[in-house]
Amino acid sequence: MKNNLLLIGAALTLSSCSMILGPSTVDVTVIGVNDFHGNLLPTSFRVPDPADRTKTLTVQAGGVEAIGGILAEARKANPNTVFVGVGDMTGASPLISGLLRDEPTIDALNGLGMAVNVVGNHELDYGLSELMRYQKGGCNSNDAAKACKFNNTFAGAKFTYIAANMLDEKTGQPVLPAYKIVQVGKAKVAFVGAVLKDTPTVVTPAGVAGLKFEDEVKSINAAIPAIKRMGADAIVALVHQGGTSRDAFDIVDCKTLTGPIVDVARGLDPAVSAIMTGHTHRGYNCLVPGPDGKDRIVIQGDALGHLLQRIDMTVDTRANRVTAIRASNVVVDAAKAPKDAAMTALVQKAKGLTDPISKTVIATLGVEQISRTAGTNGESPLGRVIADSQLAAAAPASKGGAVIAFMNPGGIRADLPVNVPNASKQVTYGDAFTVQPFGNILTVITLTGAQIKEALEQQFDNPSAGSNRILQVSRGFTYTWDNAKPKGEKVSEIKLNGQAIDPAASYRVVLNNFLADGGDGFTAFAKGTSRLGGDLDIDAFRAYLTSTTVTPDTTERVKRLN
């Protein structure tokens, strides 16, 4: 009897402790945006037609006003909500942000309450010094003409940039924190991040000068022990690398994910409960088995703020573990979402500064819109136009005497114009800037015919096995590629104005400085000689559009077999 009383007393004591401590579980909501690229305003986005999923509907999606409204609703429903970025918040931005050095975007993300953002490759478009200015603030920019024009002073990001695998080339030490632990209600949620290890192949050499990039899995896993020692209750990985799925973004727990992120997901420490991804501009919500064999969420939200990644999890703060988790992609329907008044004011201020330039009509097209969507051969109508514009700018002897132009497809950021219908067929400077926002310098180099073939062969298994980056080529240049042939032997019948390219002869070629430096894996271009700088790409594009009524050339320049 005495023993029973002791047991009862112990049970009551434990029960009393439990009541004093309160419940040990916390419901946490993590909302993330990836590849935002300074898109303060909504843009066109295609969603499955709920009445017939074989069809799609076009909605205006994204924009900070609608994102702010959705975040407010989420925080009202669950105060334990945290907002994060999965890289490329800035860079390759439309004029409303890009013309102001993306400072409106940083201010908007501050206002939206972003807690942490993993570095994406585009955060390095302007180099490490400018990224550190974004973090710390100030007006000491490498583009003084744009910096501190949105405000007289720039306070910098209130959120923390992280990157476990971005190291100082000389010291081997991390340049930024590997992780950040955020107190979300009673839960400590750790966000650990990495940028794609191949960042040097997609950023100009000047942008990554002095940096080296380690393996994503190795770097994130190395940070896990420290995160555990800090008492984290949950760990979420923010990885600026991605893949693609044949399932739509609203299919939950898809099993069709492919691409580089799959190997990353398979290798990350089992303590990571979910992986929020970016870079590939795809919408998916998939499961990938981790090293322990258990399925783990891997999600991405398209790009430009069209979708918000959402993770809802129940966290046991006594056991330091996640007991339940689910994921979804939320469409940021600008017509239906409530508007954030502070974001409306920010957008209006940015528009007031940039609209006089942005709304200037520079040309009238022969069609409503020219698409950047590539055909099976890899060519796009807009890609042909841009290549032709660059050749036109560099063809005069005084500008380099170019006879061939190459354009990287990743540098074409939108259709021209972005939105339809466009009954007037007019194009504004803002439209052109949105298509080519980088401010790259046209560069003319001399290449041999053999080096041109070498560069064309580098289009395949680029950036990874099974993927292709097909260069857009100028009028008069043609070639054939055979998908069935092995790498290094795919390209044949290379011609200029109907004449076969001579491997030993020299040709003057124009491309942007990113490609000329070997960007996007085209190392053959870095072998070019007699280098001559020229116009900005946006200026060449604008001049070409202004000079004539442009209608896309439908003549096939690149022929694909198999």
TrEMBL record:
* Domain 5'-Nucleotidase C-terminal span(s) in chain numbering: 361-526
Q: Does the keyword Hydrolase apply?
A: yes
Q: What is this protein called?
A: Bifunctional metallophosphatase/5'-nucleotidase
Q: Where is the signal peptide?
A: 1-20
Kindly give the InterPro entries that the UniProt entry links to this protein.
5'-Nucleotdase_C, 5'-Nucleotdase_C_sf, 5_nucleotidase/apyrase, Metallo-depent_PP-like
Gene Ontology BP terms? nucleotide catabolic process
Q: What family does the entry list?
A: Belongs to the 5'-nucleotidase family.
Which UniProt key words apply to this protein? Hydrolase, Nucleotide-binding, Signal
Tell me a GO cellular component.
outer membrane-bounded periplasmic space
Record-level Gene Ontology MF annotations = 5'-nucleotidase activity; nucleotide binding; UDP-sugar diphosphatase activity
Domain of life, per lineage: Bacteria
